[in-house]
Amino acid sequence: MTVLLESIELTKHFSMGKGRTVHAVDQVTLAIAEKEIVGLVGESGSGKSTFGKTLVGLHSKTAGQVKFKGKVLPQKYRSGDFQRMATSMQMIFQDPYSSLNPRMTVGEIIGEGLRLHSAETNAKVKEKTAEWLERVGMHGDHMSRYPHEFSGGQRQRIGIARAMILEPEFVVCDEPISALDVSVQAQVINLLGELKDKMGLTLLFIAHDLSMVRYVSDRMAVMYLGSLVEIGPADEVYFQPKHPYTEILVNSNPEPDPETERGRLSTTIQGEIPSPINVPEGCRFASRCPKVMDVCKHETPQLLPLKDLNRQVACHLY
Amino acid sequence: MFPIGPELAFGIPIIEFFDNGTLFFEDRLDLRPNTYYYSVVALDSLGGLTTTYETMEINVSRVTTLSEAIDNGLISADEGLQIGDQVLLPLHPLGTDYLGRDMLARLMAGGQVSLLIGIGAPFIFVLFGVAFGSIAGYIGGKVDQVMMRFADFVVALPFLLFMILFKISFGIGPGESGVFPMLVALVILMWPATARLVRGQILQIREQGYISASQLLGAKTSYLIVRHMIPNTMGVVLVTLTFAIPSAIFTEAFLSFIGMGVAPPTPSWGSMSNEGIKNMLISPHELIFPALFISITVLAFNLLGDGLRDALDARMRNTE
Amino acid sequence: MSEMSNVLHKKEQEPLLKVEGLEVEFDTYGGIVQAVRGVNFSIEANETLAIVGESGCGKSVTVQSMIGLIPMPPGRIKAGSARLRGREILGREMIDGKAIRGSEIGMIFQDPMTSLNPTMTIGDQIAEPLQVHRGYSYRQAFSRAIELLEMSKIPEAKDRARQYPFEFSGGMLQRAMIAMAISCKPSILIADEPTTALDVTIQAQILDLLKDLQAETGMAIILITHDLGVVARMADEVAVMYAGKIVEHGNLDDVFYRSAHPYTVGLREAMPTNDPVKQHKLEPIEGSPPDLFAPPKGCGYNPRCPYAMNACEQKHPDEFYLLGKHYSRCWLHHPQSQQKPESLYFKESAS
Question: Backbone phi, then psi, for C276, in 5-degree steps?
């Protein structure tokens, strides 16, 4: 399978003044193949959103590279770079309420991409906008309305139409369903699946809902405090987690099935997530790991493939 | 008969007689503008009082001498009017001021000055503040810091001192009207508040998803600021504007009062109010009318601002 | 007659909390919104009742109106009663000389960041209900607050009590809120989406904490959530709400394995299961909930229901009892309905 996009030791730090740095993303190496859906999970502070934004250029890179189809992307994007990449990489945002400009009509929002890109006539832009509105399950005449007239699920569809109208090859979905009701989440997920099949998209699906990520993704990657700790085929990672953190994550994930829940051992995690400002030496999970060893506190484990298994884990146990 | 002098004491022109070698007669008693009753009694050949008399009810403020009537253009010289005849004075619907100048006419003329300063200045400095604030807010970092420190510096400048400096530099002497320097001073010294507000809004708007989305679609910085950010600051800007206008009008009034603004006889609502205070108890209309005009204008702009803001924000309020 | 009633009375002991026919509406610019349209449920000590539904179904309004958290204009309790140990509490502040809200019934909310006063220390906030409701002195209350923080498994409770909310993480704040809610040993704890804003591992900690506290104190828990996984983990009884009414009610196994209402089934089909055997394609529920300004006279779920019949539009379904206390408000269960309710049961439900 050809690699469409890969990040090589991608690092993003934010400086908070007074010499403090937030290590949001640290040396993440991830290769995404064409037409693949890679799910990225993690809790707050894991850096998954920051990773997604850095991939598409919304954040400048502190270190490391991103390659799209083999070509290295700029370390810091200028508007010309965004222009160039707009037909290749796009993003769907988390909050349906703040991701649409309240002062623009739905038609203007969706059509913006076309207007900024091609010199299409107004009529053509309108036509395409209406076409895309229908494709995401809404009506063409919704074009003249404003975002506040729509529900969360509908707004998310508008956001999807906006991202798709330029027919990108790679789309980062940054928690696209977290703010939606359960029954609406399924609508949006199915829509994404449909579009992915029809348009041959490659997706990076970022979320904290493990069940949803497993359902959607081909491969699943787990992040903790800025580093990748495990990556492998989604089902395998979920049902046979290798990294202690993944194990705990999966065990904490509530399953809508009473029997499963009754049989579940209470292996809840200890403590709180440490601050990404003073990142501890050695393995970042050492302070909370039930299988911690001495070496874990001094040496940072590398993300290495396991033998006999299509899996990469960053843990001294292996 | 005595000569009519140029003094301003009220008097009753009892007789005017133009003749060679004939004297004129005018009664000068330094009267207050009330109604008086004058009785004129004829004298007999020995200088004693006769029984022939005439009593007239005279409202002193509504009396004018023949020559003044001609001078003011109320009658033409050859109409052959006599003492005691009535002349139609032009109507002063809002009365006159202490110099006899028509209030309404002055208010209308004064409106030109007050509105020019009161509306013109805020529009200009709000516009500048918006531009300054958006650039500072969007670019952020060191540029933002420098720009905001500059704004702080401007706030610290003493307003009055600069007014005086501007007046001098524009070569306007004492007793002359300084409308233009007042405008310049207001614009140069009042923009920081708007800039700060707009910058705050922009900092918040910058984090919104739709800005990132536009960037990804290839939008340039100027497009982002003009098309996305500034329209979303309209609510805040309108409120600022509706407060800036009355503030400017009052500032102008204050400046005119202390002699830094318009100089007499140029009217402005502010200066008229200030003059009206002197005669507040005697002729309250001199204060009430200009104050009323200012109040109504301010109220009108406030309501306009409210309405505009509600109309624009009706859309905003529905977004959580 | 009185003998009979005595016997009856002994058999059916008054439940800890019994809500009957609760109807709550709101006056708004657009008209009257009928948020809760006739809700019945009861709960015993040591039991956890989960009220499940999506946004707008009225679950929060139901519990908030019981303890007087709904501002009464524009809100209004149109009808119904809520009895705590047989005594009516709707519209009342005190019962048996003790306050209802905060003392008899405690509550924790969704977002701990905004539910605590940022200008008071955590210790002070936990001490407050003790001072107000139990007349403790400040010292007594504060030391009890430290104990409560320890019960909520907050490490270094003594130091933590002197800190302010901004120094706590989300999970810790939720524990602090729990400590505050249980300070006066309430008989019922209402938890309104307590873990929605938290990470999944922290969620597990909080849910375990609630279970432990329940085992220690015997309090009842009313858990409001939209997450069926949380329900499966915590609940003994489940009430599914839609458009202001309870559409299905039963114990945990009933509702999950013998789902008897199309909405319950719809919810389950819209969520991914992680059981390697019971995989299914996500089936979203098309459409959206009805407008509660002019609620339909028939079943609220009718427009979205794949099994809709003519009767559904005309009249709201009665309660049809299945097994024991398990009931469903759906015309499919009427003896004369054409469609068999078996078609409802989730395709691969466990035996």
Answer: -60, -20
